[in-house]
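At this stage, I put together a protein sequence along with its fold in C-alpha cell form, as given directly below:
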Amino acid sequence: MALTKEEDVQMMLVCKTHLGTRNCDYRMKRYVFRRTVDGIHIIHLGKSWEKIMVAARVIAAIENPADIIVASQRPYGSRAVLKFSQYSGANATAGRWMPGTLTNQITTKYLEPRLLIVTDPRTDSQALKEASYANIPVIALCDTDSPLENVDIAIPSNNKGKESIALLYWLLAREVQYLRGTLNRASGWDIMVDSFFWRDPEELDNKQEEEQEYAKPAETWTAPAGGAADSWEAGAAGGDSSWDAPATGGGDDWSAAPAPAAEEGGQNW
C-alpha cells in the first residue's frame, strides 16, 4: 500500500494536483502544506490521497451504483465524469445542471440518488443546494478557495486543471473497483489516465487535418519513356563518331596562302 501511495502522489505532482490558488478558505487551511513566494497555496497531497481513499469507501458502500450522481458543469471535468461513470456504474451529469433535478418531482429528469459527487462546489452550487434540501451526502473536489457549505467529504486538490481533474477521477474509479473486487491490486489497472483527459474539439479537428495532409501520397518524378536517358546515350554515341571525322572549313588548312594585304589608301584596321 505504501508503494501505491508513493506512486499516486508522484502522479499527482506531475498533474499539478498540489497547486492551489492565491486565496484560501479558512476551512481549507488544514489541507494547505505551505505557501509559495508568489502567494500560491500548496495542497498537502498526503491528505488528498487519504480523502480519496475515504471517498472510495463511501462510493463502494452503496449497493446500487446507479444511485450515485457525478456532476460537472466545468468543461474540463466533463470527459472525466463520463469515464468515471463508465467504470463505476454511476450516473453522469456533464454540462449544465437542470434545476430541480433533486427537488422538483414533476420533472421527467427527477432523481433520488444516495450520493452526489461534484467537481467544483462553486461551479456546481445549484446541485449542492438541492442536495442539502434532499439530505443527500456530497463528495466534492475542493480547491483552497472553495466554499465547504453542504460538503460532507472534501478532497483537497486542484479542480481547475484538466490533468488534475482527470487523475482524481481515475484514482477514484480504480480504488472503487479494488474495493468491489472487480480488480486485483496485485495486477493493477491497465486503463491509462490519458483516457480521462478533456480534449478540445478544435484541437482534435486540427490534428485530423494535419494527419490528412501528411497522409497524402508524395509526388514522385518519373522520367518519360525514351526521354532523357536515351537522348544522352544517343548524343554520346554521335559525339564519339564525330571525333574522327575531318573538320569542315579552312580552319585546319595551315598550308594555305595568307590573305592579301589591304590596298594602300584603304582603311587598315
